[in-house]
From TrEMBL:
Protein name: Ethanolamine-phosphate cytidylyltransferase
Catalytic activity field: phosphoethanolamine + CTP + H(+) = CDP-ethanolamine + diphosphate
Xref: PANTHER family: ETHANOLAMINE-PHOSPHATE CYTIDYLYLTRANSFERASE (PTHR45780)
Encoding gene per record: LOC115952953
Record-linked CDD domains: CCT (cd02174), ECT (cd02173)
NCBIfam families, per the entry: cyt_tran_rel
Ranges for domain Cytidyltransferase-like: 61-190, 260-390
InterPro entries: CCT, Cyt_trans-like, Ect1/PCYT2, Rossmann-like_a/b/a_fold
GO MF annotation: an example: ethanolamine-phosphate cytidylyltransferase activity
Domain of life: Eukaryota
Enzyme Commission number(s) of this protein: 2.7.7.14
Amino acid sequence: MGVSDEEKIRSTARFLATILIGGVVVGVSLLGLSSKLHFPFPSIRCSSNDKKKKKGCVRVYMDGCFDMMHYGHCNALRQARALGDQLVVGVVSDPEIIANKGPPVTPLNERMIMVNGVKWVDEVIPDAPYAITEDFMKKLFDEYNIDFIIHGDDPCVLPDGTDAYALAKKAGRYKQIKRTEGVSSTDIVGRMLLCVRERPISDSNNHSSLQRQFSHGHSQKFEDGGSGSGTRVSHFLPTSRRIVQFSNGKGPRPDARIIYIDGAFDLFHAGHVEILRVARELGDFLLVGIHNDQTVSATRGAHRPIMNLHERSLSVLACRYVDEVIIGAPWEVSKDMIITFNISLVVHGTVAENHDFQKETSNPYDVPISMGIFKILESPLDVTTTTIIRRIVSNHEAYQKRNEKKAASEKRYYEDKTYVSGD
């Protein structure tokens, strides 16, 4: 049975339409412009340098303590940014955190560096209030031209039992995102406090004792859901989609000057952000190598890392100064690696957990040193992962109470919810 001319025309039209639509989808995906991924390209309707609100520009606001900032915070900011063209972030002041939650681990200046370093953030407001008051909400709408106030789907309850976002909801200017399951600041602090409970804290001043105290929290009574303050081992399950969501989606230009820096990047902190900023200023593309868990444990002790490889990778990927990461980078920087990634310069900061590599017979940077492409950078901040751990240990009772304060509600949250990726 023959095919009519009309059917041939329709078939050809469908084929051409499929190619055209497919080409657009592929092109958009390759350019990283998909609204689903929402890479941080400037909006046509908005300009970060122009404080005046432009027609059609949607500005959204999200606040938080951002203490012990982790990939869950970054994912929340990514989701919030996807709801508008510009994201303004309020960082809660130290006194407000103390009054509502307990002492913060990291002071405001370090938390500001962390939030400013997230690639989905357009503007930051320091000393934000813990609760959205009527006066502050008016300021957001009138001075900052905010269209919507964003928060996660986990409850934010004030000490008096009221909802911190009640006024924003009442005004009809509130939007909600999904919380990223599997991690919280309480959980991370708890991973470190777990062993402190079982040892005299007076030993913590000794560095070797400090190293012995910390582990991933593989304590049977906690894994079995026994006593404690809700501390759990990491159950983060990485997916390719999450990695793509955090990635920039583009490689270096053929003539790009590629800078390479590696490390553990455990408990990603302000010191990490600042050295990455300095490294990025030296070239066109910053490639970051993240050592696997076994390498970190071998070089820094069985108590490390606190965060696993994929948790650490996402935190680094969320940093605006980072273009790409090598997940599970080798300890030694080889010639093959330098050629493969077209690395122009290998750098290392002056502030680090361990400078023993300079004394070792097998220096991991021997090859780039011999090639004349190795440089030690002056670290802007004297902060390391051990700094963060010591802060918690020295004030462990306060953080213990802070964790216990949230433990019951957080435990109920995890028991009542199934794993949701937090799109």
